[in-house]
């Protein structure tokens, strides 16, 4: 994809970039935020990853399926990324 295409669909480009990385961190993390245990962190990462994957399937692969719920879940996933931005490393 080119930058022009990414910017025309920046929401989709972000979802496509973040989804596999959240999935990877969930599977391979060695640390987690204070106030959370490893299982809770993994669960939150997986929920966010799954929400973005569903979003990609609707808007990139054209698999329509309750877009309102999927959009809301994707929005929640992006809010999760923003809230834990400084913890997304390993």
What are the SSEs and their pairings?
Elements (H helix, E strand, L loop, with lengths): L2 H6 L1 H19 L9 H22 L7 H17 L7
Helix pairs in contact: 2-3, 3-4
Q: Quick one: biggest sheet?
A: none
Total of domains = 1
Oligomer: single chain
Kindly report how far apart the N and C termini lie. 27 Å
In terms of per-residue confidence, which ranges show pLDDT below 50 for 5 or more consecutive residues? none
Helix and strand sequence: HHHH
Mean pLDDT: 92
- Approximately how much helix is present in the residues? over 70%
Structural class: mainly alpha
The shape, in one word, is globular
Q: What's the count of strands? A: 0
Strand content is under 5%
Provide the gyration radius in Å. Answer: 14 Å
How many helices? The count is 4
């Amino acid at each position: 994809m080119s930058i022009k295409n990414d910017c025309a669909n920046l929401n989709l480009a972000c979802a496509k970039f973040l989804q596999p990385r959240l999935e990877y961190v969930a599977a391979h993390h060695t640390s987690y935020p204070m106030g959370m245990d490893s299982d809770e962190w993994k669960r939150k990462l997986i929920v966010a990853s799954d929400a973005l994957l569903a979003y990609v399937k609707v808007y990139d692969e054209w698999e329509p399926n309750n877009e309102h719920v999927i959009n809301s879940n994707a929005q929640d996933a992006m809010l999760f990324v923003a809230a834990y931005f400084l913890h997304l490393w390993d």
